[in-house]
Amino acid sequence: MDWREWTDADAARVIRVPELDADKYSRGVLGVLTGSTTFPGAAVLGVEAAARTGVGMIRYLGDDRPAQLVLQRRPEVVTAEGRVQAWLIGSGMDDDALHERAEVLDDALASGLPVVLDAGALDLARHAEHPEKLILTPHARELARLLTAVGVDASPDEVREDATTWARRACDELGATVLLKGATTHVADPMNRAYTVSGATSWLATAGTGDVLGGVIGALAATSSGAALADVAATGALLHASAALTASRGGPIAALDVAESLPAAVASRIGPSPAAS
How far is 41 from 27, CA to CA, in rounded Å? Predict the structure, then answer.
C-alpha cells in the first residue's frame, strides 16, 4: 500500500462552502453524543470545534451536566432528537454514560449514517452493523487495546514504531476507516486509501485536543455528503493541525485555542465566499 501526504488542495475538495440560499438543514446537522458527568469538558470541546468548522446545526444528546455546559458555551445547540447527517460519539464518555445512552447509541450505529467513534466508544466498532460507515480516531494505546480485543497482539510501543502497518491492520480487522493519531497522523480505509498528515506542532500534546479533532471530523462528515470517509478524516486532521499552528505561534496552547482558530484554518483552504464573488 502506498501512503501519500494529504494536501491543502485535497482538503479544499472536501470542505463544502454553503450556497447563498443554504439553510441549517441543507448545510448538515451533526448529532453529538459525548461527555459525561465525570468528563463534561469533552462535550464542550467537541461541540465548539464542530461549530467552528462549519455545520448547519448541532444536536447534543449527552448527559444533563455536559448539556448544561454546552449550552452555556454554545446556546444555538439543540438538545432534542431529530434528523442528522452524521454522528460524533464517545469523547469523554465513561461506562456509566455509555450505559445510560445505550438506546441512542444503538440507533446511531444502526442508522447507516457516518459515525465518528472516539475514546470511550471505540470498542463499539467491534460489533457495528455498518463498519464501513465508521471513522475511528484512536491514539496508539487505544488502538493497541482495540486490536487486542479482536485477538491481535499489539502493544502501544509497537503501534507507535510502525504506525502504517498497525493502522492498516486495524482497518482490515474492523472494516472501518481508521485515523491513528500521532506526530504524523495515519488514515486508512477498506478501499485501500492511505493518507498521512504531518507538520502538527508538538504543543498539541495537551488535554482535550483529541476532543477538538473529533468535533472537526464530525462536522466535515455532516457537511461533506458523498466524500470518502478517509478523505473526511484526513481533512479533519489537516485543519486541526493548521489551527494548532495558528493558535500556538511557537508557544503553548490549550484545546479551546485550537477550536477558536478553526475558522481561519478553513478559510485559508477555500476560495472567496459566494457573497464576495
Answer: 26
* Residues 190/1, Cβ–Cβ less than 8 Å: no
* C-beta separation of 78 from 57 below 8 A: yes
Calpha distance 161→274 (Å, rounded) = 45
**Mean pLDDT value across residues 93-115:** 95
Per-residue pLDDT of 207-255, as tens digits, reads: 999 999 999 999 999 999 899 999 999 999 999 999 999 999 999 999 9
Cβ atoms of residues 273 and 17 within 8 Å:
yes
> Angle at CA 83, nearest 5°, toward 61 and 23?
110
For residues 241 and 58, give the distance between their C-alpha atoms in angstroms, rounded to a whole number.
Answer: 23
DSSP state of 40: T
Q: Is residue 276 over pLDDT 60?
A: no
C-alpha closest to that of 1 among 235, 237, 187: 187
Determine the 3-state secondary structure of 228 from DSSP: coil
What strand order describes the sheet that includes 4-5?
4-5, 194-197, 185-188, 177-180, 134-136, 115-117, 86-89, 29-33, 57-60
A 10 A CB-CB count for 178 gives 28
**Which pTM does this prediction carry?**
0.96
236 in Cβ contact with 215 (< 8 Å): no
CB atoms within 10 A of CB 176: 25
Residue where the block lists cell 502493544: 155
| CATH number of this structure's domain 4-266 | 3.40.1190.20
Phi and psi angles of residue 116, each rounded to the nearest 5 degrees, phi first: -90, 120
